Amino acid sequence: MAEVLVVVEAGVKKVTLELLTIARGLGSPSAVVFGEADAAKLAEYGAEKVYVASGDDVEGYLVAPKATVLASLVREKQPAAVLLASTQEGKEIAGRLAVKLDNGLLTDAVAVDADGTATQAIFAGSATVKSKVTRGLPIVTIRPNSVTPSTAPAAGAVEQLAVAVSEADKLAKVVERVAEKKGSRPELTEASVVVSGGRGVASADNFKLVEELADLLGGAVGASRAAVDSGFYPHQFQVGQTGKTVSPQLYVALGISGAIQHRAGMQTSKTIVAVNKDPEAPIFELADYGVVGDLFKVVPQAAEEIRKRK
Amino acid sequence: MNIVVLVKQVPDSGASRDLNASDFTVERASASNVINEMDEYAIEEALKIKEAHGGEVTILTMGPASATEAIRKALSMGPDKAVHVQDDALHGSCAVTTSKVLAVALGTLNADLVLCGSESTDGRVQVMPHMLAERLGIAALTGARKLTVDGNQLTAERQTDEGYEVVTAATPAIVSVWDTINEPRYPSFKGIMAAKKKPVQTLALADLGVAAGEVGTAGSTSQVLEFAARPERTAGQKVTDEGDGGTQLVAYLATEKFV
């Protein structure tokens, strides 16, 4: 069975396990790790091989060296497909790889068939297309939360890759990486529950309410563009057109009117719940359950009720 | 500093959007077409750099004849001139072939710095800066929320899921920006009037020495096989809080097994 290369995001994210799960339908999964490898975890989810490329030549720069290493691996192994996460980095590596190999590329897939045909959600999740790469092998980036990862123990044989990158790959240097407080919450795009706050939350301090509900539900915190622009919450948590696209099992919108730009980032969520004081807010048009009311009364009461039930 | 800003005309993401039934390309004829919002931040950043360091700002657009509207809008903010790559054979180009054409066009413009938005609101593919950098052999700093220019040294701060990174490169380079980087200016009346007289050079594929068969639907590296509108979400249950809204909400979450 032909190899399917799965590019691993730093630290083996949940999306990596989803990629391995999808890769098993296309061939024999081989993980490609840049940096430190958790080979045991990758093997548990089906990686027969684990290729590792590490060192400052790979990790000290933006994506160009990774694409070079990946391109030479593709030329050597002739895999059936290359799968990456539809994150900024995943897409950027895929873009460079496609140019290097003069190969097609599909981004933001939510499913990939055995023949490499990808299903993509387009126009902010309002339409679905099926596409295929017509030149070269399928290079596909896949959105987090597209499938439920399942285990399928495999060998996970580790193989170190020789890293041979050119000076042209080392033009964009990372001089500093600053980790900001993250806490124990799941990552926004990977979380199965997302609780978001909007303009109605009214202040940065009040976002504690959003965080509290998120923590009680084991979810991530998101924010609408209005809330981010008002300085209530940092930009990396923005959900919508110019922020993150999320597709959790449960999306809770607090004080969010539901402008089309926000819906763009969350309308493929499985279940949507909204609290808003305006009964005419467009968010109610897509909410499975809506509460018209003051979120400063409804949310604390809901939090209390969840505590009681625990 | 010679700065080129990539500008794309896109269907308004706030209005209804569709694909052509015949070839599954973006429906532009009936759409409300606008300048890609994120590109306005790139234009603003270019103008600020020009104001601080001198130089020239050129808009580069690939698109059909109607993209002229987006070019004039871009010019009304203050850039000096524009180049419009326009050829019927470009219709249906994928990202890979688009990057091929833009790279050739950029090659004629001798830019020190290429600026663009981090993504377009129609495709949201986010690969163009790195595809162009790969083809041109220059650096790509993507997703900048802050950009500093010091001689030929560029320093950008970029958001990551973990926090942020500081990245550096020397010019020539391409930098993509997020909407957190600045607040784009509104075109003034004077700017709008001036934009009508600014030079817009139109380049066809023949001018760039690119064969028609290498681009468009013919040269595309991927193909859309089918297209379906997703069923619209419908409103579910809506209750008005009369003192027990929070409790009712949790009762609903419990029936759905979230608590």
Can you offer a commentary on this structure?
The complex is a heterodimer of chains A (310) and B (259). Chain A contains 9 helices and 15 strands. Chain A is α/β, with parallel strands linked by helices and 310 residues long. In chain A, 59% of the residues are buried. Helix content of chain B is 29%, strand content 29%. In chain B, strands 9-8-7-10-6-1-4-5-11 form a 9-stranded mixed β-sheet, with helices on both faces. In chain B, α3 crosses α4. The radius of gyration of chain B is 22 Å and the shape is globular. Chain B starts with a strand and ends with a helix. Classes of the chains: A alpha/beta (310), B alpha/beta (259). β7 of chain A pairs antiparallel with β12 of chain B.
* Run of helices and strands of chain A: EHEHEHHEHEEEEEEEHEHEHEEH
Strand content of chain B: 25-35%
Number of strands of chain B: 13
Mean pLDDT of chain B: 95
Q: State the helicity of chain A in percent bands.
A: 25-40%
From the N-terminal CA to the C-terminal CA of chain A, the straight-line distance is 48 Å
**How widely separated are the two ends of chain B?**
58 Å
Enumerate the strands of the largest sheet of chain A in spatial order, edge to edge or round the barrel: 7-6-5-8-4-1-2-3-9
Tell me the layout of helices and strands.
The complex is a heterodimer of chains A (310) and B (259).
Chain A: E1 3-8, H1 14-23, E2 28-34, H2 39-44, E3 49-53, H3 56-59, H4 64-77, E4 81-85, H5 88-101, E5 106-112, E6 118-122, E7 127-133, E8 139-142, E9 157-160, E10 173-179, E11 193-197, H6 207-216, E12 220-223, H7 225-229, E13 250-254, H8 260-263, E14 271-276, E15 289-292, H9 295-309
Parallel strand pairs in A: 1-2, 1-4, 2-3, 3-9, 4-8, 5-8, 11-12, 11-13, 13-14, 14-15
Antiparallel strand pairs in A: 5-6, 6-7
Chain B: E1 2-6, E2 9-11, E3 33-35, H1 37-53, E4 56-62, H2 68-76, E5 81-85, H3 95-107, E6 113-117, H4 128-136, E7 139-150, E8 153-159, E9 163-170, E10 173-177, H5 189-195, E11 200-203, H6 205-208, H7 216-219, E12 222-229, E13 237-240, H8 245-255
Parallel strand pairs in B: 1-4, 1-6, 4-5, 5-11, 6-10, 7-10
Antiparallel strand pairs in B: 2-3, 7-8, 8-9
Helix pairs in contact in B: 2-5, 3-4
